[in-house]
Amino acid sequence: MSRKLCPNGHGYYSTSADICSECGAALQSDHGERVIAHRYRLDRVIGLGGTRSTVWEGVDLRTTRPVAVKLLPDPTGVELMRFMRGAFIAAELDHENVAQVYEYGEYGEDEPEGGLFLVMERLTGATLDRVLRKGAIPWRRAVSVAEQMLSALDALHANRGVHRDIKPGNVFVTPDELDDSWRVRIFDFDLAMRVEDVTTSEFYGDELRAVPSTPVCGTPPYMAPEQIIGYPLDGRADVYAVGVTLYRMLSGCLPFADSDRQLLYRAHLERTPPPLAAPGGRPELPSALVAVVMRALSKRRSERFKFASDMRRALRAVQLEHREAATPAPAAFAARWPTP
Length: 340
Hints:
This protein is an alpha+beta fold. It is built from 9 helices and 14 strands. Helix 3 (139-158) packs antiparallel against helix 9 (308-321).
């Protein structure tokens, strides 16, 4: 039976409908069982990617392996460039804390609709953003998540890449039922870029260089000052975003949360974050941990950690200094994990 579906996952409609009643998006034709690139069956929409992309749960028909497939229909020139560049950067990273990309390319030569696709491993668990909707998490858990994020970013920066959109919504966490640990994977490299057009000394230089760069893009609450004003970026912009994410994990809120975008930009450029403290009723945060977060949030990137690995080592030192404290039992986090 012919029908239409909402590209944002809000269900199916009759062929006479044109607009989704929930989100107002233009409906797309559903042509029954859909197979992309003669190999990947699409079963259901499970999320949204960038501005217009959707993420589907599917199956690799050759291997029967579960996969996640991102589709971007009818891309513009800029969208095509970003999608393919990000897919290439992600695909060449072989790291346990990066969602594995299996294939990417164009689809639609023999289909009613065409566009770009990216196939990656089907992750189980939840995004960190979804977890944090219930508030802060214990500091040891937060530090473990940040360490894994930094490990992935260290590999990316070693390949002369910058993610440019590190945030809880682009971090996936999977719980391990055996030891209560969380495995972290970063994904969505749509805004990732190379820094091949600057020398090594400039890439790791200590001072900002007022040179015009690409248009400002990213997620405002997590953007470094130099990203906001359009300066050339290096890995320290991602370090700043990890600092914002860690601040939120520890306190349950963002360092700057102005609803007006211009005020938010100004806060990142000029204001000092409120003192970092655990929510009421929780143990006080180690002073060394607070110092790590505040250094990552420095306005001048020359005052931040030079490499992601430097921040990771600083966090590991905090963990070792407080290793005598017992790790909370799995039951302590049962209520926190989001239900499907």
